[in-house]
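For the sake of transparency, this paper describes our internal protein records without simplification. The remainder of this section carries one protein's record, kept here as part of the documentation:
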Amino acid sequence: MSRPARSVKSLLSLNSRGSPVASRPVTGRQEVRCGTKFSDHLNGVFSGLQFPPELARRILTHANHQTATNGHNASLSFIGMPRSRSRSCGLIAHSSALTPEHDLEDIAYHTLHTYALGEHVGSKWGLGRHLRWVPAIAPEVREQVSDSPDLRKVGLYKVQGDAVTAVVGGIFSQFGGFVAHRVFHTRLLLPMLVKGALHEAFHRDALLVCDRMGGPEGRLVIKSSSTFS
């Protein structure tokens, strides 16, 4: 096992038991069923990949959920965000459209803003239909605003954005950097070609890279190139 792989697995183990949140007893059978359901969903979104049920369950469990004591997605998100940021900065830095007036860090920030990722990428991936989380408002307030789509979306987009980067982190740790690289350019970045996300000056570069990788449905696993990191 390579040094990067060992370090990633060590980081994941630190968070494997989740955070100290209140929870009711959850049976192993319940978690197995959830893991299978979650892996089926992610396998459908990312054709060619087979997510282990335990990994899928962690990816789609937010730290504030009652089952988070069995593992949640915070450390996976922590792994996925810098790798997504490095791909974004690499695309921008090597673009012929980049000028001295462009602020590289600001562009990368808006491209990968958590709420934007949740709204555009998380929604496209259908994460909200399976994500386990609890809105960060008091139960009595939650009941009063249960029919407020705007308020629900604010919280949902945040946790969906965290789940998007957790997906990247999970793919990196399970399938390797090459696959995570292709996921970023063919599945994650394209939904961010909208106002307020990736700067329009770099949309053409993003589309060209995606096209070189086979388009938005391009293969994610290419055996001869599986050592990319």
